Write the structure tokens for this entry.
Amino acid sequence: MAMIFRSTEFALIVGVAMSQNIGTHVAEEHLDMPLWTCDSSGCTKEMKSVVLDANWRWLHDGQYTNCFKDKDWNTQLCPDPVTCAKNCHLDGAGPKEYKETYGVQTIANGIELGFVSETAYGKNFGSRLYMLESDDKYKIFKLKNREFTMTADMKKMPCGLNGAVYFVEMDADGGTAKSGGANKAGAKYGTGYCDAQCPHDIKFMEGKANVIEWNATNDPPIGKWGTCCVEMDIWEANSRANAYTPHTCSIKGTYICEGV
């Protein structure tokens, strides 16, 4: 299962975008993060990296016109699921964008997630990151009969905020194989999110845009489709409380549903 780091408010789930094309305005550069693997002989440190969830990224027409802005789709670029996927490009992020736009930066032996970041283009709230095995594959954890530990600094997380580390049954490639080649961005750009709540705010699924019956006034905005999979919450917490919760599912792998 893929591991996720999240900083968000009131446990708000914001979905991932699965775009057909890759933007070229900013080159994607993942942030380093260490992972230790231990056995009876000791621990070995590996340098992995993390990638930002695609939903936070700039989605545009290949130039400078937004495909998605102010919680809604550009109806000229996105009149239907297939046309939208053909028209829209998912852009990258480097260390500057990770820090200044999304509030994410590397620290000694870890990652720091801010909550509110403000730029000339507006405010960003929270983030969601995935650990990578390679540049275009997620790290898949197999934890049966094994122990998982982590350290979190919660002194700046008051009531009303929620930090999380959890596992979900995402595809290692970010869903590129299931899309039949329509999703060219893949894990390198943080695509393919799913969880046990079957979130309907995911913008693209298997290379098609979730524009049908899109409700921009809902909080968060949602479409007709949702994407479901097993979820194991290792740690959801702030400085006052924490939770550890398994969310099982009778279907193996990612499943696209319709309706609420």
About this structure: The CA atoms of residues 181 and 207 lie 8 Å apart.
